[in-house]
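Sorry to interrupt, but I need a hand with the structure work. Leave the record below and I will have a look:
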Amino acid sequence: MSLADSPAPPGVPARGRPRSEAVERAVIEGVMKLLEEGVPLAELSIERIARTAGVGKATIYRRWNGKEELFVDVVRAAEPPDPELPGTSMRDDLVALLEQLRQRGVMTRTSVLLHNVFAQMKSSPKVWAAYHASVVRPRRRLQIEILRRGQQNGELREDVDLELVNDLIVGPMLLRTVMRPEADVETDLSEGLSERIVDTVLEGLRPVKSSTT
């Protein structure tokens, strides 16, 4: 769900007309076009975006509260889609989530547009906070829930801190995709990395079966 999809607080009337996916797509593509041309986020006025997208300013304001909210949706549109979780095991679900991070890291390295989008987003505290609220936090909650189910199913030790385990699993991928700009796509972000990270961490966290004498 995008910020624009969020329901209005109680007592606040809903904004605008029924949503049009075609109009929203045109606006988001208009922002991407401007970014491709090298226009900084600070210079992306609603008026300029509307002119590029071929819509009126009112059309944009009916769908987004402002530029920051719109930019978060632009970032989401540029990212790989949320993965379909296999649901077969905790391990398989974790691999699917981690693989999305790997693919985003590869795309960011190979796409000038996506690299520009994320670089500019980090320079705007409001956009960065909105992105965390609408994208990062929900994903983290999902990751913790997967680990919790793993504990309940006997796939993960009951005495471990789930927040810490999640960091142990996600951390190596974030290190290679975000913290190491020199990381090589072909080797450091190669296919199979997600499986290797998850299996390495879980190897030491599986329940220990008591031996019978």
Remarks:
- The two ends are 54 Å apart (CA to CA).
- Residues 62 and 145 are 35 Å apart (CA to CA).
- Residues 125-152 form the longest helix (28 residues).
- The chain has a mean pLDDT of 83.
